[in-house]
Amino acid sequence: MIKMTQLVFLFLFPMCLNAQSVDLNRTVTLKYNNQQLGFILSDLSRKYGIPFSYSSNFIPVAKRITIRERNISLEEGLNKLFAPTQIIYTTIGNSIALKIDASKEVVPIIEKPIDRKRKIESEEIPLLKKSSFPVLVWEHKIPVEVLEKMKNPPPVPTVSEVPDRGAGFMEKQMIQVTLVPPISTNEELAEKSINTFSFNILWGRNGGLNGIEIGGFVNTITNNMQGFQLAGVGNQVEGDMQGGQLATIFNHNQGFTKGVQASLFNIANTGNVIQLAGIANIIQGNFDGLQAAIVGNYTKDKANGIQSAGLFNYSEGKANMQFSLGLNKAAEVKNLQIGLVNIAKKVNGRQLGLVNISETADKTPLGLFNYVKNGYNKVELGGNEVTYGTIGYKSGTREFYNIFQVGSPFIKKVWSLGYGFGTAFKLKEQQYFHIEYVASHVNENEFWTKELNLLNQLKFNFDWQLQGNSSFFIGPSWNLLASKRKDVEALAVVGSDLPHYTILDKTFGNTNWKMWFGLSGGFRF
User: Are 503 and 430 found together in one domain?
Assistant: First the structure.
């Protein structure tokens, strides 16, 4: 059966060279740097909707190629892409079929023209790599005898001379059943068969799938897979996967993944994929789509989709959106980070969380503590009519910054600990107007006052920039102090001993309220 399929394909292949169902004149851009041929084919198929038909057992999908061509025809691009290989192609229906032609001359492509008639010795190959920035280069040193064979290839065998099962085309099977390899209905041809229905009682290892595969423990596909896999333990695809995978423990794809993976652990190389994990999702390259996990998500390169996890999201490259109850970390954030702790080098979007840390931020982060390395970070030494001496730290951006502050009047056993936030408006060069709110717990006549003793300050101050990064500020403030301090003997609410004057001093229920206007000023560094 396999031999007959090969004979029919070899007979029909030359007759299909003039088929034009695929528009070879369409404009494409090929820009790949040292990428595997299999990845390039998958990427072209994804970008331009061009199905490729081939067997990775015979097509050198692992060969790494560098090509940079912009706005050229598909035909010209494929010719240049396959130039350093013995691959030829034809259009069959709406797809492009690939095969190996042993008679095709293989030459490296470089930007400047080379004399192909000149004899190329093997010692010259490294020089070709270094000269004139090659678009395509050989991966290995080619011996002189191999080059001679490429120049004078052996004659192509006739149909009658084709060896049994030697053409490299996968055989299609309607159904197969496997106990464990090699106990299979496909026997020794299991890894050279594409199955429509595949049943693996314990573990199966098959060449390809274009349909449904069900396994008791593990399903393994050595080439490409289209369809759906269901396994008691795990699914593994060593080529590209398009469709769905459902397993108890793991799903692992080594090629381009397009579809859905659902398991405790999901691992894919690159792809446009939805990963749903009970524990973790891993992408070893770029991905578009969704990663959702109870524990965490990891992407080695760009996470162009959404990462959502219970504990952490981590992208070594750019991340589009990250949502977590714990930590979000990325080299660059395009749109949004929401989590307990958000960390990124560059933020083009916004960070929302308790702690937000970045080197640069286009939009102001919002949280209890915001640190932007190139943002607004100041140490403040100042005072007011209640706490004559204060020291504070402000971090974030001028649009929104956090305030951490301690203060004391020094003459009493009184000190305060406060937190607040503020914003600054630029009046003119070297001058800013600040609006700040700080809430401070005031401790009076003891190290820590357990009762409510909260000083609320709304401050308006003008800031004049001095030399370097220092500035001087001064301005009025509105103060409201709520206190539940009681007299120890009378057990009545007496409130705070601060300040020296008020415009309101009333007790409502068990809370004393004092209000007054004040003045604050100092220096910022």
Answer: yes
